[in-house]
Amino acid sequence: RCVCYGLGRFGRCPAARYQLAFLLLLLEELRVPPGRCALFDPAFSAREAAALRALGLRLLPENEEGKHGVQGAATLFYMVHCGKALYNNLLWSNWSPAALSKLVIIGNSFRGIEERLLSRILERDYSYIAKVLKGVEEVALPSHPRYLDTFNDTSVHWFPLDKLQELSSEVWDFVEEPMYQDCEDLEIIRKGEE
């Protein structure tokens, strides 16, 4: 399965078109049927939504705010240049070694997020990203001069079960839903704000 968040207005934006092309090639390479790939971006126009459907892709019916559970199935999350809250929500909704070990994320580098944010802000606002840093493997996508703005700071992330099981039990005990009430730079469109 594949879930794609935040693709953007590919009808207007060349970078979003390149990201869509890469997603389609990735699905083909991984032999994931287009019908097993669901997308959501509150910015999609009616014409863009129709184009995605014509490609055989599915549109999610509502804004999940990144809170999509893997439900026991291996799932690729394609989230290039999404906001930190979306990644944090995704981790929260799959907060167990069994679930996290079933997901792969192609998106903003978690190491880059850690380097750019003060640790107190990372731990307060994006606690699930902060807690999983020792349980994630990450490899940056190779850079290409033509696509620097399209895939910069993009990595493939996966969560090996043995690494997750080495994390302390306190890491797994705290499962409070993220609320972001003190977050000053929230980069997410909340449900109902579309």
UniProtKB/TrEMBL annotation:
It comes from the Eukaryota. GO terms for cellular component: cytoplasm; nucleus. InterPro entries: SRR1-like, SRR1L. It holds the Pfam family SRR1. Residues 1-158 form the SRR1-like domain. Belongs to the SRR1 family. PANTHER family: SRR1-LIKE PROTEIN. This is SRR1L protein. It comes from Poecile atricapillus. The gene is Srrd.
